[in-house]
Amino acid sequence: MKTLSRVAAILLILVLAAGTACADTLSLNGTIEAGETVPVYAPIGGTVESVSVEQGMRLNTGDTIFSYRTDKTYASEDGKIAGVFVQAGDDAETMTERYGADLYIEGNSVYTVSASTQKAYASAETKMIHTGESVYLMSKKGRYGVGIVTAVDGNNYTVRITENDFITGDVIYVYRDSEYSAKQLIGRGTVARANPTAVNTTGAIVNVAVKNGDEVRRGDLLLETLTGTFDGYRMSGTSVTAQETGIVASVSVEAGTVVTKGDIVAKIALISGMRVEAPIAADDRKDLKAGDKVTIALESDETKTYEGTVRYISELPEEDSETIQYKVIIDFTPDENAVFGMSVIVTTAE
């Protein structure tokens, strides 16, 4: 009998110990949530050309969120780029004030004639000069050329020489016909070197398509700009990219949307801010505190586990709960298997 009593006592002790061990292990059901959602701001005003993301997409650092539609400046003539004074990020107007232009083009027509109708044939027709008309040129020394009237100011006008073998300082007679008829003489002037064409634009420079010395044709792209200034924000190209890895929580623009600087265009739930949120009953609060280590297992695959640390337990009860419960916030390091919204099981150490 004594032996049986001793065995029964041992069994009772083991059962009580097992019960105590079970009571020391706390299990909570939670979900993976976004602890930190950051806004993406429009760095400058402009029109959205395209949006590369949708809600729920994963973004890696450097991925494009959206691109701007730029204002473009094209070459107005054939020639060579004679100076580029801007770079991406510059304010175009500021650089124009500093250098006189954002860039210059030396046209293939390097000479002009500053002419007057004072020596023209005496007729009403030869005294009336028209901008854009083609004219024929002859120097006192027997050199010939062709030009086009580019400006008229009363009796004075300017001819851009397009074909010639003139030199600076030549005195030129200007005619309306290629036969150089006396009755078609519309004036006289002097050859001078043409000033480079100043190219100016407005807004913030986002792309410079040429460099000093480049040969360009009329219609070639020179500059791309956006509305406003960057104020210290450096932007290369026309795309706004993700600065951290995360999940797109929301997108508030689409192609064609006009944005101003500082507008929120998207929100990103950072992977680095991923955390577990789990409710805990009031009676169990005493068994868990900030700093405690826990094990997190994915409900869909309990072999996928993570070590977590309790950041804090809310001091206010959950409002939408039928019983008194508090929210537990747990930090952990996620991998590719952890996704926002997943259900998890949180257990404490024995």
From TrEMBL:
Keyword Transmembrane among UniProt keywords: no
Domain Lipoyl-binding: 201-268
Signal sequence coordinates: 1-23
InterPro entries the record matches: Biotin_lipoyl (IPR000089), Single_hybrid_motif (IPR011053), UPF0194_transport (IPR050465)
GO cellular component entries: cell envelope
Subcellular location: Cell envelope
Superkingdom of this protein's organism: Bacteria
Keywords carried by this UniProt record: Coiled coil, Signal
Keyword hit for DNA-binding: no
Principal place of residence: other
UniProt name for this protein: Lipoyl-binding domain-containing protein
Native source organism of the sequence: uncultured bacterium Contigcl_1149
Source taxonomy: Bacteria, environmental samples
